[in-house]
Sequence to fold (496 residues):
Amino acid sequence: MTTDFTPESERLIMSDSYVIIGDGIAGASAAETLRQEAPDADITVITDEGESLYNRILIKEYAKGKLPEAPISIHDESWYDDHDVDLRLDTVVVDVDVESDEIRTHEGETIGYDKLLLGIGGTPQQLPVENADAKGIHHFWTFQDARKIKESVEDADRGAIVGAGLLGIDFAAICGAQDVEAKYLMRGDSWWRYALSNEGAEIMHEAMRERGVEPVFDSGVDRFEVDDDGHVEAAVDPNGERYECDFAGVAIGLDLNTELVEGTPIEVDDGIVVDEYMRTNVDNVFAAGDITRFYDVLLGEQAQNGAWGSAKEQGTIAARNMIDYESERFEWVSSYSITHFDFPFLSFGHPTLGDDSVEATTAEGEWRRVALKDGKVVGGVLIGDLSPQSAFKKLMREGRDVRGQTDLLMEPGFSVDDLAAPTEQ
Amino acid sequence: MPIREQGRRMRLRRTGTILPEARIRHYDELGDDAQATVAELAGRPRTAAEASDLEDGDVVKFTDYYVVRAR
Ligand SMILES: Cc1cc2nc3c(=O)[nH]c(=O)nc-3n(C[C@H](O)[C@H](O)[C@H](O)COP(=O)(O)OP(=O)(O)OC[C@H]3O[C@@H](n4cnc5c(N)ncnc54)[C@H](O)[C@@H]3O)c2cc1C
Fold:
Protein backbone atom coordinates (compact mmCIF):
# COMPACT_ATOMS: atom_id res chain seq x y z
CA MET A 1 0.00 0.00 0.00
CA THR A 2 1.25 3.51 -0.78
CA THR A 3 0.48 6.49 1.35
CA ASP A 4 -0.58 9.69 -0.37
CA PHE A 5 1.00 12.63 1.42
CA THR A 6 -0.64 15.22 -0.83
CA PRO A 7 -2.57 17.61 1.39
CA GLU A 8 -6.34 17.26 1.02
CA SER A 9 -6.68 20.85 -0.27
CA GLU A 10 -4.15 20.19 -3.05
CA ARG A 11 -5.69 16.86 -4.01
CA LEU A 12 -9.03 18.51 -4.58
CA ILE A 13 -7.63 20.96 -7.10
CA MET A 14 -5.39 18.43 -8.87
CA SER A 15 -7.07 17.47 -12.10
CA ASP A 16 -7.00 14.15 -13.87
CA SER A 17 -5.05 13.91 -17.08
CA TYR A 18 -6.68 12.16 -20.00
CA VAL A 19 -4.76 11.17 -23.10
CA ILE A 20 -6.68 10.21 -26.20
CA ILE A 21 -4.94 8.54 -29.11
CA GLY A 22 -6.84 9.15 -32.35
CA ASP A 23 -8.85 12.18 -33.42
CA GLY A 24 -11.44 10.28 -35.42
CA ILE A 25 -15.06 10.46 -34.33
CA ALA A 26 -14.50 8.08 -31.37
CA GLY A 27 -11.55 10.00 -29.91
CA ALA A 28 -13.05 13.41 -30.67
CA SER A 29 -16.44 12.65 -29.15
CA ALA A 30 -14.66 11.38 -26.04
CA ALA A 31 -12.72 14.66 -25.84
CA GLU A 32 -15.96 16.62 -26.20
CA THR A 33 -17.68 14.63 -23.45
CA LEU A 34 -14.68 14.82 -21.12
CA ARG A 35 -14.52 18.58 -21.50
CA GLN A 36 -18.25 18.90 -20.77
CA GLU A 37 -18.30 16.54 -17.82
CA ALA A 38 -14.84 17.11 -16.32
CA PRO A 39 -14.29 20.84 -16.85
CA ASP A 40 -10.92 20.92 -15.06
CA ALA A 41 -9.37 17.86 -16.65
CA ASP A 42 -6.17 18.01 -18.68
CA ILE A 43 -7.01 16.57 -22.08
CA THR A 44 -4.50 15.71 -24.80
CA VAL A 45 -5.56 14.39 -28.21
CA ILE A 46 -2.90 12.86 -30.42
CA THR A 47 -3.32 12.03 -34.09
CA ASP A 48 -0.94 10.89 -36.76
CA GLU A 49 -3.04 12.69 -39.36
CA GLY A 50 -2.15 16.23 -40.41
CA GLU A 51 -5.65 17.57 -39.78
CA SER A 52 -8.10 17.55 -36.93
CA LEU A 53 -11.49 15.81 -36.87
CA TYR A 54 -13.31 15.76 -40.18
CA ASN A 55 -16.32 13.89 -41.44
CA ARG A 56 -14.91 10.59 -42.65
CA ILE A 57 -18.28 9.49 -44.01
CA LEU A 58 -18.50 12.51 -46.31
CA ILE A 59 -15.05 12.30 -47.90
CA LYS A 60 -16.49 9.96 -50.55
CA GLU A 61 -18.75 12.84 -51.59
CA TYR A 62 -15.68 15.04 -51.97
CA ALA A 63 -14.02 12.37 -54.14
CA LYS A 64 -17.20 12.13 -56.23
CA GLY A 65 -16.87 15.86 -56.90
CA LYS A 66 -20.15 16.62 -55.12
CA LEU A 67 -18.87 18.50 -52.07
CA PRO A 68 -16.26 21.19 -51.46
CA GLU A 69 -13.66 20.61 -48.74
CA ALA A 70 -14.89 23.14 -46.18
CA PRO A 71 -18.11 21.54 -44.90
CA ILE A 72 -16.30 18.24 -44.30
CA SER A 73 -14.31 19.66 -41.40
CA ILE A 74 -15.97 19.12 -38.00
CA HIS A 75 -13.48 20.49 -35.46
CA ASP A 76 -11.12 23.09 -36.82
CA GLU A 77 -7.96 23.73 -34.83
CA SER A 78 -9.52 26.63 -32.94
CA TRP A 79 -12.02 24.19 -31.40
CA TYR A 80 -9.17 22.62 -29.43
CA ASP A 81 -7.94 26.02 -28.19
CA ASP A 82 -11.46 27.10 -27.29
CA HIS A 83 -12.02 23.90 -25.32
CA ASP A 84 -8.56 23.84 -23.77
CA VAL A 85 -7.64 20.56 -25.41
CA ASP A 86 -4.00 20.00 -26.29
CA LEU A 87 -4.05 18.74 -29.89
CA ARG A 88 -0.97 17.09 -31.38
CA LEU A 89 -1.20 16.70 -35.13
CA ASP A 90 1.24 14.59 -37.21
CA THR A 91 2.24 12.70 -34.10
CA VAL A 92 2.47 8.92 -34.12
CA VAL A 93 2.21 7.14 -30.80
CA VAL A 94 4.73 4.33 -31.00
CA ASP A 95 4.55 2.84 -27.53
CA VAL A 96 2.11 2.43 -24.68
CA ASP A 97 3.52 1.57 -21.26
CA VAL A 98 0.73 0.60 -18.91
CA GLU A 99 3.12 -0.04 -16.02
CA SER A 100 4.29 3.55 -15.85
CA ASP A 101 1.11 5.07 -17.38
CA GLU A 102 2.95 6.70 -20.25
CA ILE A 103 2.85 6.80 -23.98
CA ARG A 104 5.75 7.62 -26.26
CA THR A 105 5.60 9.46 -29.58
CA HIS A 106 7.69 8.95 -32.72
CA GLU A 107 9.72 12.00 -31.71
CA GLY A 108 10.65 10.38 -28.42
CA GLU A 109 8.38 12.53 -26.27
CA THR A 110 6.89 10.78 -23.27
CA ILE A 111 3.42 11.79 -22.10
CA GLY A 112 1.99 10.52 -18.82
CA TYR A 113 -1.71 9.89 -18.21
CA ASP A 114 -4.13 9.02 -15.46
CA LYS A 115 -6.56 7.57 -18.00
CA LEU A 116 -5.86 6.57 -21.59
CA LEU A 117 -8.30 6.16 -24.47
CA LEU A 118 -7.39 4.24 -27.59
CA GLY A 119 -9.52 5.46 -30.49
CA ILE A 120 -7.08 4.25 -33.12
CA GLY A 121 -9.31 2.62 -35.74
CA GLY A 122 -7.91 0.61 -38.62
CA THR A 123 -5.83 0.75 -41.78
CA PRO A 124 -7.03 -0.54 -45.17
CA GLN A 125 -5.48 -3.83 -46.22
CA GLN A 126 -3.34 -4.00 -49.33
CA LEU A 127 -3.92 -6.75 -51.85
CA PRO A 128 -1.06 -9.23 -51.54
CA VAL A 129 -0.47 -9.24 -55.31
CA GLU A 130 2.16 -8.03 -57.76
CA ASN A 131 2.25 -4.22 -58.29
CA ALA A 132 -0.38 -3.61 -55.59
CA ASP A 133 1.35 -0.33 -54.71
CA ALA A 134 1.56 1.01 -58.29
CA LYS A 135 0.57 4.58 -59.09
CA GLY A 136 -3.15 4.94 -59.73
CA ILE A 137 -4.06 2.21 -57.22
CA HIS A 138 -5.88 3.61 -54.20
CA HIS A 139 -7.05 2.66 -50.74
CA PHE A 140 -9.59 4.76 -48.94
CA TRP A 141 -9.52 5.84 -45.32
CA THR A 142 -8.34 9.42 -44.85
CA PHE A 143 -9.17 12.81 -46.30
CA GLN A 144 -5.69 12.76 -47.84
CA ASP A 145 -6.66 9.50 -49.58
CA ALA A 146 -9.84 11.19 -50.84
CA ARG A 147 -7.86 14.10 -52.29
CA LYS A 148 -5.55 11.71 -54.14
CA ILE A 149 -8.49 9.59 -55.33
CA LYS A 150 -10.29 12.66 -56.66
CA GLU A 151 -7.24 13.89 -58.53
CA SER A 152 -6.54 10.46 -60.00
CA VAL A 153 -10.11 9.56 -60.94
CA GLU A 154 -10.69 12.91 -62.64
CA ASP A 155 -7.90 12.04 -65.08
CA ALA A 156 -8.98 8.43 -65.57
CA ASP A 157 -11.02 6.78 -68.30
CA ARG A 158 -11.24 3.23 -67.05
CA GLY A 159 -11.35 1.84 -63.54
CA ALA A 160 -11.08 -1.46 -61.70
CA ILE A 161 -12.51 -1.97 -58.23
CA VAL A 162 -11.83 -4.81 -55.82
CA GLY A 163 -13.62 -5.61 -52.55
CA ALA A 164 -17.31 -6.49 -52.65
CA GLY A 165 -18.35 -4.72 -49.47
CA LEU A 166 -19.49 -1.42 -48.03
CA LEU A 167 -16.28 0.46 -48.86
CA GLY A 168 -15.82 -1.07 -52.31
CA ILE A 169 -19.18 0.27 -53.39
CA ASP A 170 -17.95 3.79 -52.54
CA PHE A 171 -15.25 3.36 -55.18
CA ALA A 172 -17.94 2.19 -57.62
CA ALA A 173 -19.99 5.31 -56.87
CA ILE A 174 -16.94 7.56 -57.26
CA CYS A 175 -16.18 6.05 -60.68
CA GLY A 176 -19.83 6.42 -61.65
CA ALA A 177 -20.00 10.05 -60.55
CA GLN A 178 -16.72 10.90 -62.29
CA ASP A 179 -17.71 9.22 -65.58
CA VAL A 180 -15.10 6.51 -65.34
CA GLU A 181 -16.18 3.22 -66.91
CA ALA A 182 -15.31 0.60 -64.36
CA LYS A 183 -15.22 -3.13 -63.78
CA TYR A 184 -16.06 -4.21 -60.25
CA LEU A 185 -14.17 -7.47 -59.78
CA MET A 186 -15.83 -9.66 -57.14
CA ARG A 187 -14.69 -13.01 -55.81
CA GLY A 188 -18.11 -14.59 -55.43
CA ASP A 189 -21.28 -14.39 -57.45
CA SER A 190 -22.67 -11.23 -55.85
CA TRP A 191 -21.89 -8.05 -53.94
CA TRP A 192 -21.67 -8.37 -50.11
CA ARG A 193 -22.70 -12.00 -50.20
CA TYR A 194 -22.28 -12.38 -46.43
CA ALA A 195 -25.28 -10.11 -45.78
CA LEU A 196 -27.39 -10.29 -48.94
CA SER A 197 -28.81 -13.05 -51.10
CA ASN A 198 -28.50 -12.85 -54.89
CA GLU A 199 -31.95 -11.33 -55.11
CA GLY A 200 -31.09 -8.35 -52.91
CA ALA A 201 -27.61 -7.98 -54.36
CA GLU A 202 -29.04 -7.84 -57.88
CA ILE A 203 -30.77 -4.55 -57.05
CA MET A 204 -27.35 -3.16 -56.14
CA HIS A 205 -25.71 -4.65 -59.26
CA GLU A 206 -28.33 -3.02 -61.46
CA ALA A 207 -27.74 0.35 -59.80
CA MET A 208 -24.01 -0.01 -60.44
CA ARG A 209 -24.59 -0.89 -64.10
CA GLU A 210 -26.76 2.19 -64.53
CA ARG A 211 -23.75 4.24 -63.47
CA GLY A 212 -21.34 2.59 -65.86
CA VAL A 213 -19.84 0.16 -63.34
CA GLU A 214 -20.01 -3.45 -64.44
CA PRO A 215 -19.91 -6.14 -61.75
CA VAL A 216 -17.71 -9.08 -62.77
CA PHE A 217 -18.37 -12.21 -60.73
CA ASP A 218 -16.10 -15.12 -59.75
CA SER A 219 -13.23 -12.78 -60.41
CA GLY A 220 -10.85 -10.70 -58.27
CA VAL A 221 -7.29 -9.55 -58.87
CA ASP A 222 -4.38 -11.87 -59.40
CA ARG A 223 -1.95 -9.09 -60.32
CA PHE A 224 -1.81 -5.55 -61.64
CA GLU A 225 0.15 -4.60 -64.74
CA VAL A 226 1.97 -1.29 -64.91
CA ASP A 227 3.33 0.94 -67.68
CA ASP A 228 6.93 2.21 -67.95
CA ASP A 229 6.18 4.96 -65.41
CA GLY A 230 4.94 2.42 -62.88
CA HIS A 231 1.32 3.51 -63.35
CA VAL A 232 -1.38 0.86 -63.31
CA GLU A 233 -2.62 -0.12 -66.76
CA ALA A 234 -4.54 -3.32 -66.12
CA ALA A 235 -5.91 -5.66 -63.51
CA VAL A 236 -5.65 -9.35 -64.32
CA ASP A 237 -8.10 -11.66 -62.58
CA PRO A 238 -7.48 -15.27 -61.46
CA ASN A 239 -9.14 -16.52 -64.66
CA GLY A 240 -6.51 -14.69 -66.71
CA GLU A 241 -8.98 -12.01 -67.88
CA ARG A 242 -7.26 -8.65 -68.33
CA TYR A 243 -9.13 -5.44 -67.55
CA GLU A 244 -7.47 -2.26 -68.70
CA CYS A 245 -7.60 0.53 -66.18
CA ASP A 246 -5.84 3.76 -65.30
CA PHE A 247 -7.52 3.95 -61.88
CA ALA A 248 -7.99 1.17 -59.35
CA GLY A 249 -9.71 1.13 -55.98
CA VAL A 250 -8.93 -1.57 -53.44
CA ALA A 251 -11.22 -2.03 -50.43
CA ILE A 252 -10.74 -5.60 -49.25
CA GLY A 253 -10.89 -4.97 -45.51
CA LEU A 254 -9.34 -3.23 -42.54
CA ASP A 255 -6.42 -4.19 -40.37
CA LEU A 256 -7.26 -2.86 -36.93
CA ASN A 257 -4.37 -0.86 -35.49
CA THR A 258 -3.81 -3.22 -32.55
CA GLU A 259 -0.07 -3.34 -33.27
CA LEU A 260 0.36 -0.38 -30.93
CA VAL A 261 -0.62 -2.43 -27.88
CA GLU A 262 1.12 -5.66 -28.83
CA GLY A 263 3.53 -6.58 -26.06
CA THR A 264 1.39 -4.85 -23.44
CA PRO A 265 -1.01 -6.68 -21.11
CA ILE A 266 -3.97 -5.10 -22.96
CA GLU A 267 -6.11 -7.93 -24.30
CA VAL A 268 -6.42 -8.12 -28.07
CA ASP A 269 -8.61 -10.47 -30.04
CA ASP A 270 -8.96 -9.09 -33.55
CA GLY A 271 -9.60 -5.70 -31.94
CA ILE A 272 -9.00 -4.36 -28.46
CA VAL A 273 -11.26 -6.25 -26.08
CA VAL A 274 -13.43 -4.00 -23.89
CA ASP A 275 -16.43 -4.50 -21.66
CA GLU A 276 -19.77 -2.74 -22.10
CA TYR A 277 -18.20 0.31 -20.39
CA MET A 278 -15.44 0.46 -23.01
CA ARG A 279 -12.77 -0.47 -20.48
CA THR A 280 -9.95 -2.84 -21.39
CA ASN A 281 -8.58 -5.41 -18.98
CA VAL A 282 -6.22 -2.66 -17.72
CA ASP A 283 -8.20 -0.50 -15.30
CA ASN A 284 -7.22 2.96 -16.55
CA VAL A 285 -7.10 2.12 -20.27
CA PHE A 286 -10.25 2.40 -22.40
CA ALA A 287 -10.91 1.98 -26.11
CA ALA A 288 -13.65 3.21 -28.45
CA GLY A 289 -14.69 3.06 -32.09
CA ASP A 290 -13.72 0.67 -34.86
CA ILE A 291 -10.77 -0.66 -32.83
CA THR A 292 -12.93 -2.34 -30.19
CA ARG A 293 -14.24 -5.83 -29.75
CA PHE A 294 -16.83 -4.82 -27.19
CA TYR A 295 -19.29 -6.71 -25.06
CA ASP A 296 -22.58 -6.21 -26.87
CA VAL A 297 -25.27 -6.31 -24.19
CA LEU A 298 -28.00 -6.76 -26.81
CA LEU A 299 -26.30 -9.68 -28.48
CA GLY A 300 -24.97 -11.19 -25.26
CA GLU A 301 -21.48 -11.68 -26.65
CA GLN A 302 -18.42 -9.78 -27.88
CA ALA A 303 -19.01 -7.99 -31.18
CA GLN A 304 -17.56 -5.41 -33.53
CA ASN A 305 -19.06 -2.41 -35.29
CA GLY A 306 -17.53 -0.41 -38.11
CA ALA A 307 -19.84 2.56 -38.32
CA TRP A 308 -19.78 6.27 -37.59
CA GLY A 309 -22.73 6.44 -35.19
CA SER A 310 -21.44 3.54 -33.12
CA ALA A 311 -17.90 4.98 -32.92
CA LYS A 312 -19.30 8.33 -31.80
CA GLU A 313 -21.46 6.75 -29.11
CA GLN A 314 -18.60 4.55 -27.90
CA GLY A 315 -16.39 7.65 -27.55
CA THR A 316 -19.04 9.37 -25.44
CA ILE A 317 -19.67 6.28 -23.30
CA ALA A 318 -15.95 5.65 -22.83
CA ALA A 319 -15.46 9.23 -21.61
CA ARG A 320 -18.25 8.92 -19.05
CA ASN A 321 -16.81 5.69 -17.72
CA MET A 322 -13.30 7.13 -17.63
CA ILE A 323 -14.67 9.76 -15.27
CA ASP A 324 -16.91 7.37 -13.33
CA TYR A 325 -16.57 3.69 -14.15
CA GLU A 326 -19.81 1.74 -14.66
CA SER A 327 -21.80 4.95 -14.98
CA GLU A 328 -23.18 4.10 -18.44
CA ARG A 329 -23.24 1.02 -20.66
CA PHE A 330 -22.86 0.96 -24.42
CA GLU A 331 -26.23 -0.29 -25.64
CA TRP A 332 -26.61 0.48 -29.28
CA VAL A 333 -27.97 -0.83 -32.56
CA SER A 334 -25.51 0.21 -35.21
CA SER A 335 -26.52 1.08 -38.76
CA TYR A 336 -24.78 1.99 -41.99
CA SER A 337 -26.43 3.34 -45.11
CA ILE A 338 -25.56 3.60 -48.77
CA THR A 339 -26.93 6.76 -50.31
CA HIS A 340 -25.24 6.74 -53.72
CA PHE A 341 -28.28 5.62 -55.69
CA ASP A 342 -31.80 6.92 -56.13
CA PHE A 343 -33.04 4.39 -53.58
CA PRO A 344 -31.68 3.97 -50.05
CA PHE A 345 -29.85 0.98 -48.59
CA LEU A 346 -29.43 0.37 -44.88
CA SER A 347 -27.72 -2.37 -42.95
CA PHE A 348 -28.40 -2.52 -39.23
CA GLY A 349 -27.16 -4.55 -36.27
CA HIS A 350 -25.05 -7.52 -37.25
CA PRO A 351 -26.47 -8.63 -40.62
CA THR A 352 -23.77 -11.23 -41.19
CA LEU A 353 -24.40 -13.07 -37.90
CA GLY A 354 -27.21 -15.36 -36.81
CA ASP A 355 -28.42 -18.91 -37.29
CA ASP A 356 -31.46 -18.13 -39.41
CA SER A 357 -32.84 -15.40 -41.66
CA VAL A 358 -35.97 -14.32 -43.48
CA GLU A 359 -36.06 -12.24 -46.63
CA ALA A 360 -38.57 -10.92 -49.12
CA THR A 361 -39.07 -8.62 -52.04
CA THR A 362 -41.80 -6.34 -50.72
CA ALA A 363 -42.37 -4.24 -53.86
CA GLU A 364 -40.49 -3.57 -57.07
CA GLY A 365 -36.96 -2.51 -56.10
CA GLU A 366 -37.71 -3.06 -52.41
CA TRP A 367 -36.12 -5.92 -50.57
CA ARG A 368 -35.36 -6.77 -46.97
CA ARG A 369 -33.61 -9.45 -45.01
CA VAL A 370 -33.60 -9.98 -41.27
CA ALA A 371 -30.96 -12.09 -39.54
CA LEU A 372 -32.07 -14.03 -36.44
CA LYS A 373 -30.25 -15.77 -33.64
CA ASP A 374 -32.08 -17.96 -31.15
CA GLY A 375 -35.34 -16.50 -32.45
CA LYS A 376 -34.26 -12.89 -31.95
CA VAL A 377 -33.46 -10.22 -34.51
CA VAL A 378 -29.69 -9.53 -34.61
CA GLY A 379 -29.46 -7.46 -37.76
CA GLY A 380 -30.54 -7.06 -41.32
CA VAL A 381 -30.55 -5.17 -44.58
CA LEU A 382 -33.21 -2.91 -46.06
CA ILE A 383 -33.20 -1.84 -49.69
CA GLY A 384 -35.59 0.76 -51.07
CA ASP A 385 -37.97 0.99 -48.14
CA LEU A 386 -36.35 1.99 -44.84
CA SER A 387 -39.64 2.44 -42.99
CA PRO A 388 -39.32 -0.70 -40.81
CA GLN A 389 -35.89 0.28 -39.47
CA SER A 390 -37.20 1.78 -36.23
CA ALA A 391 -39.33 -1.30 -35.58
CA PHE A 392 -36.46 -3.73 -36.22
CA LYS A 393 -34.10 -1.73 -34.04
CA LYS A 394 -36.72 -1.70 -31.30
CA LEU A 395 -37.06 -5.48 -31.49
CA MET A 396 -33.30 -5.75 -31.11
CA ARG A 397 -33.22 -3.42 -28.11
CA GLU A 398 -36.03 -5.32 -26.45
CA GLY A 399 -34.55 -8.72 -27.31
CA ARG A 400 -38.01 -9.85 -28.48
CA ASP A 401 -38.41 -13.49 -29.41
CA VAL A 402 -40.11 -13.51 -32.82
CA ARG A 403 -40.15 -17.28 -33.38
CA GLY A 404 -43.22 -18.37 -35.29
CA GLN A 405 -43.96 -14.79 -36.38
CA THR A 406 -41.08 -14.05 -38.72
CA ASP A 407 -43.43 -13.79 -41.74
CA LEU A 408 -44.86 -10.65 -40.18
CA LEU A 409 -41.42 -9.01 -40.33
CA MET A 410 -41.66 -9.17 -44.09
CA GLU A 411 -45.00 -7.34 -44.31
CA PRO A 412 -44.58 -3.95 -46.07
CA GLY A 413 -46.06 -1.82 -43.27
CA PHE A 414 -44.61 -3.90 -40.41
CA SER A 415 -44.90 -2.42 -36.93
CA VAL A 416 -43.89 -3.93 -33.57
CA ASP A 417 -47.58 -3.89 -32.55
CA ASP A 418 -48.29 -6.48 -35.25
CA LEU A 419 -46.51 -9.09 -33.13
CA ALA A 420 -48.24 -10.99 -30.36
CA ALA A 421 -47.50 -9.39 -26.98
CA PRO A 422 -44.32 -10.82 -25.45
CA THR A 423 -44.94 -13.59 -22.94
CA GLU A 424 -43.45 -13.39 -19.45
CA GLN A 425 -40.35 -15.58 -19.15
CA MET B 1 -27.64 27.69 -27.66
CA PRO B 2 -30.80 29.25 -29.16
CA ILE B 3 -34.04 27.84 -27.84
CA ARG B 4 -35.96 26.00 -30.52
CA GLU B 5 -39.44 27.02 -31.37
CA GLN B 6 -41.90 24.30 -30.43
CA GLY B 7 -44.30 22.67 -32.84
CA ARG B 8 -42.50 23.52 -36.07
CA ARG B 9 -42.90 21.38 -39.17
CA MET B 10 -40.08 20.49 -41.52
CA ARG B 11 -39.79 19.52 -45.14
CA LEU B 12 -36.91 18.58 -47.41
CA ARG B 13 -36.09 20.27 -50.66
CA ARG B 14 -33.65 18.75 -53.13
CA THR B 15 -30.67 21.01 -53.70
CA GLY B 16 -27.90 21.03 -56.27
CA THR B 17 -25.68 23.73 -54.82
CA ILE B 18 -23.75 23.22 -51.63
CA LEU B 19 -22.23 26.36 -50.17
CA PRO B 20 -18.89 26.00 -48.36
CA GLU B 21 -20.44 27.34 -45.15
CA ALA B 22 -23.38 24.87 -45.19
CA ARG B 23 -23.77 22.44 -42.32
CA ILE B 24 -23.94 19.04 -43.99
CA ARG B 25 -25.19 15.98 -42.17
CA HIS B 26 -24.79 12.50 -43.59
CA TYR B 27 -27.85 10.33 -42.98
CA ASP B 28 -25.76 8.05 -40.74
CA GLU B 29 -24.96 10.93 -38.38
CA LEU B 30 -28.60 11.40 -37.49
CA GLY B 31 -30.46 9.88 -34.57
CA ASP B 32 -33.17 7.26 -35.12
CA ASP B 33 -36.04 9.78 -35.21
CA ALA B 34 -34.34 12.13 -37.63
CA GLN B 35 -33.40 9.19 -39.85
CA ALA B 36 -37.01 8.01 -39.96
CA THR B 37 -38.18 11.55 -40.78
CA VAL B 38 -35.63 12.00 -43.56
CA ALA B 39 -36.48 8.63 -45.11
CA GLU B 40 -40.16 9.58 -45.01
CA LEU B 41 -39.82 13.09 -46.45
CA ALA B 42 -37.06 12.73 -49.05
CA GLY B 43 -38.45 13.22 -52.54
CA ARG B 44 -42.02 13.67 -51.26
CA PRO B 45 -44.06 16.88 -50.96
CA ARG B 46 -44.81 16.27 -47.28
CA THR B 47 -44.06 17.80 -43.92
CA ALA B 48 -43.36 16.20 -40.55
CA ALA B 49 -42.67 17.36 -37.02
CA GLU B 50 -39.21 18.92 -36.85
CA ALA B 51 -36.60 16.30 -35.96
CA SER B 52 -34.51 17.11 -32.91
CA ASP B 53 -31.07 16.92 -34.47
CA LEU B 54 -31.87 18.81 -37.68
CA GLU B 55 -32.12 22.55 -38.08
CA ASP B 56 -33.53 24.90 -40.67
CA GLY B 57 -30.88 25.30 -43.38
CA ASP B 58 -29.05 22.03 -42.70
CA VAL B 59 -28.22 19.99 -45.76
CA VAL B 60 -28.74 16.24 -45.46
CA LYS B 61 -26.91 13.75 -47.65
CA PHE B 62 -29.38 10.98 -48.28
CA THR B 63 -30.20 9.55 -51.71
CA ASP B 64 -29.62 13.13 -52.87
CA TYR B 65 -28.74 16.39 -51.15
CA TYR B 66 -31.72 17.85 -49.34
CA VAL B 67 -31.99 21.18 -47.57
CA VAL B 68 -34.09 21.26 -44.41
CA ARG B 69 -36.81 23.90 -44.22
CA ALA B 70 -38.42 24.21 -40.79
CA ARG B 71 -41.29 26.60 -40.12
C1 LIG C 1 -14.41 5.98 -47.13
C2 LIG C 1 -15.21 5.59 -45.92
C3 LIG C 1 -16.59 5.63 -45.97
C4 LIG C 1 -17.36 5.29 -44.85
N1 LIG C 1 -18.70 5.40 -44.93
C5 LIG C 1 -19.46 5.18 -43.83
C6 LIG C 1 -20.86 5.40 -43.86
O1 LIG C 1 -21.44 5.79 -44.88
N2 LIG C 1 -21.57 5.18 -42.71
C7 LIG C 1 -20.95 4.77 -41.55
O2 LIG C 1 -21.64 4.61 -40.54
N3 LIG C 1 -19.63 4.53 -41.51
C8 LIG C 1 -18.86 4.73 -42.61
N4 LIG C 1 -17.52 4.51 -42.58
C9 LIG C 1 -16.93 3.95 -41.34
C10 LIG C 1 -16.70 5.06 -40.32
O3 LIG C 1 -16.08 6.14 -40.94
C11 LIG C 1 -15.86 4.52 -39.19
O4 LIG C 1 -16.55 3.45 -38.58
C12 LIG C 1 -15.55 5.58 -38.13
O5 LIG C 1 -15.06 6.74 -38.72
C13 LIG C 1 -14.56 5.02 -37.11
O6 LIG C 1 -14.14 6.04 -36.27
P1 LIG C 1 -12.93 5.80 -35.25
O7 LIG C 1 -12.75 7.09 -34.54
O8 LIG C 1 -13.16 4.57 -34.48
O9 LIG C 1 -11.66 5.47 -36.16
P2 LIG C 1 -10.91 6.37 -37.23
O10 LIG C 1 -11.81 7.37 -37.83
O11 LIG C 1 -10.20 5.43 -38.13
O12 LIG C 1 -9.86 7.19 -36.36
C14 LIG C 1 -8.71 6.63 -35.82
C15 LIG C 1 -7.63 7.69 -35.85
O13 LIG C 1 -6.52 7.26 -35.07
C16 LIG C 1 -5.34 7.58 -35.75
N5 LIG C 1 -4.28 6.70 -35.25
C17 LIG C 1 -4.21 5.35 -35.36
N6 LIG C 1 -3.08 4.90 -34.77
C18 LIG C 1 -2.44 5.98 -34.27
C19 LIG C 1 -1.21 6.16 -33.57
N7 LIG C 1 -0.42 5.11 -33.25
N8 LIG C 1 -0.83 7.42 -33.24
C20 LIG C 1 -1.61 8.49 -33.55
N9 LIG C 1 -2.79 8.38 -34.22
C21 LIG C 1 -3.19 7.14 -34.57
C22 LIG C 1 -5.72 7.33 -37.19
O14 LIG C 1 -4.86 7.95 -38.11
C23 LIG C 1 -7.11 7.93 -37.25
O15 LIG C 1 -7.06 9.32 -37.48
C24 LIG C 1 -16.72 4.84 -43.68
C25 LIG C 1 -15.32 4.76 -43.64
C26 LIG C 1 -14.57 5.15 -44.74
C27 LIG C 1 -13.08 5.08 -44.68
Summary: The two ends of chain A are 47 Å apart (CA to CA). Chain A is about 20% helix and 25% strand. The interface with chain B takes residues 55, 57-58, 61, 66-72, 307-309, 312, 335-337, 339, 341-344, 386-387, 389-390, 393 of chain A (CB under 8 Å). Residues 27 and 372 of chain A are 32 Å apart (CA to CA).
